[in-house]
Design goal:
Length: 243
Amino acid sequence: MIVLCWDFDGTLTYSDPLWTNSVYHALKMTDPYTHVSFQDIRPFMASGFPWHSPDSDYRKTINDHWWHHMNHYFFQVYQSLGVSDSVAALSCKKIRSIIRQAKNYRLYEDALSTLQQTSGKCQNIILSNNHPDLKEIIHALGLSPFFQDYIISAEIGYDKPRPEIFQLARSRYPHGTRFIMIGDSIHADIIGGKNARMETILVHKGYCEQADYCCDQLEEIPKILSKKLRILHEKSILPQHWV
């Protein structure tokens, strides 16, 4: 059995700077005349999230606690930009509802067809550094029928490339013969996956010597997998109807 571990943002979907837009629009909804711009907020979104410091242990900062942790950071961002405490507090309360809007996420045009081709032949699971409401987004985008499991950093307290998040995937599929991490981050997905003894596929980022495979398009992945399935069948690991 091949287990495909899929990253989400930047791999299956893309968006305008998601967090910058959400933090900015939350502020604009609260104070339409704010002096703070999108560009003012953007540098702050390059830090402050658990996945920016994955060596830390966030097991006590999961699910709703994850949002409490991040809202504290967003409040500090607003403060540093000169936003009043009252406006900052009201803005923070709006960010989660904005992030949960499926319209903020756009599927790569070959994402759906690729997942359709891999379903049934492989176990598709989400393995993502992400907020705890990600399952709702996946369902709203019509992708939930293609995934058997979800491993989301904000639900378990570990972020890629921490080995624990990859080990959890392995522990849930003890009969897996191949584990393949698919993602767009060299550090989190490719190096993290390789360190966890997974094969890796880098997508949308050109060539990377650390990755086992590099794909400009998701639709290339089933061709790679078909070769692996034939090899497994030749070794009598898979029945004929899987090939």
